Amino acid sequence: MKSKGIVRKVDELGRVILPVKLRRIVNIKEKATIKIHMNENEEKIILKKKRHLLECMMTGEISLQNRLYSGGIVLSTEGAEKLYKQIKK
User: Fold this and answer.
1) Which residues are bridge partners to 55 per DSSP?
2) How far apart are CA 73 and CA 33, in angstroms?
3) Tens digit of each residue's pLDDT (9 = 90 or more) over 65-89
């Protein structure tokens, strides 16, 4: 992802607001779980969305009907159709 240069201030409780546009791009919904990593050598803090084991990688849908494919890819029926259409283009 290309850096957009967004600047945010840390509040008195140490919180930072992630912009809506950014959350939509990476499909982070309210109350989502985020992993926080630190790279001390480069002074970077890395936020990574934690996925549910059954979460579709295309739609974010969590369902027992979702299928697990090789390589750890999880897709719902709708997600598989979207992926197929994108590949077909």
Assistant:
1) 62
2) 19
3) 999 998 889 999 999 999 999 999 8
**Which residue's structure tokens are 């926080």?**
36
CA pair distance 76, 66, nearest whole angstrom:
4
DSSP state of 14: S
Q: How much helix, strand and coil, in percent to the nearest 5, is found in the chain?
A: 25, 20, 50
Number of helical H runs and strand E runs in the chain: 2, 4
* Segments of the chain assigned E as strands: 34-39, 44-49, 67-69, 73-75
Structure tokens at 51: 């996925």
Full-prediction pTM beyond 0.70?
no
Number of neighbouring beta carbons within 10 Å of residue 10: 9
